[in-house]
Amino acid sequence: MTYAMIGTWRMAFEGIQKAMADLKNGGQSTDAIETAIKKVEDYPFFKSVSYGGLPNAQGLVEMDAAFMDGNTFAIGAVAGISDVKNPISVARQLSDDHFNSFLVGAGASQYAMFNGFESRNMLTERAHKIWMQRIKEINEKNLSPYDGHDTVGMVSLDQAAGMAAGTSTSGLFMKKPGRTGDSALSGSGFYVDSEIGGATATGLGEDLMKGCLSYEIVRLMGTGLSPQAACDQAVYPFVEKLKKRYGKAGEFSLVALNNQGEWGVATNVEFTFAAGNQDAAPQIFMANPGP
Ligand code: SD4
C-alpha cells in the first residue's frame, strides 16, 4: 500500500517522521498533516513558524496557516493570527465551515479563543533578542529588513489514496502589521487534489502569489507529468518571466507529491526538504537551485 509525505525545509523532518508512523498504520492524510505541522509549530528553535517565530516590525508574532483536504477540496485558513499555540489546528477546524473558512487578524484570534484553542504568547525571549539585533543592524548598516524566512508546507498521501496539504509560518521577518504572504492562500502556498497530487511553497510570498505556483504544479501533474517535471515546468519559466517583466524574482522553493507517492522539487536557492514513502523512511534531502 502506498503512503508518503513531503515537507519544506529540514524543520519538517521530525514531524514527518512522527506522522508517517501513523500513515503506516493506516492513518489518514488529514491527521498526518496536522500532527506533523503541530510538531514544527511547537518547537521553539525554528525561527519562522509559530512558537519562537520571528515577529513583525512592531514586535508581534503574526502567523499564517492553511489546511486543505484533497478528497473534498475543503480549505481552512488563518492569516495574521496571534497568541494561538497551533494555527494549523485552527485552519483545520475552519476547513469544516462552508461559509467562514478563511479568517484574518483579530477575527481569527477571537475565533481560536472562543473555540477553546490553546493560547500562548508566541514571542520567545530568543526571538525578541533577534528582533532587537535586527533593528540595530537595519539602522546601523542600512540593510533591508526582509531577509531569510521560511514556511513549513507539507503534502501527505495515505493508504486509502487520500491526500491533504498544510502550511504554517510566522511570515516575512519584520513584515508590516497585517501583511500576509502566499502561505494561507490556496493555489499559491498550497494546493492538493487527491486524484492528482499536491504542492506547497516557501519563499517570498509576494512573488509566489504572482504565479499561483502550487496550483500550477498540480494542474501540470494532472496532465500526466511527473512531480519533478511539473515542478520544473511551473517554476523555472516563471522565475524567468518575473525577472523579465517585473525586473526581479524573490527566493522560492516548491515541493510536490503525486498520488503514486512520487515527489519533485524546484528551487532558486539552496533548499532542504524532508520526504519519505512506504519504501523509504523519511530523510532530509538537499536541493540545489535550478537553471
Ligand atoms: C511568506 N512564504 O509569508 C512565506 C514566508 C516564507 O521563506 O516562506 N519565506 O511569504
Automatic annotation (TrEMBL):
Listed CDD domains: Glycosylasparaginase
Superkingdom, taxonomy of origin: Bacteria
Matches recorded under Gene3D superfamilies: (Glycosyl)asparaginase
Descriptive protein name: N(4)-(Beta-N-acetylglucosaminyl)-L-asparaginase
Origin species: Latilactobacillus curvatus
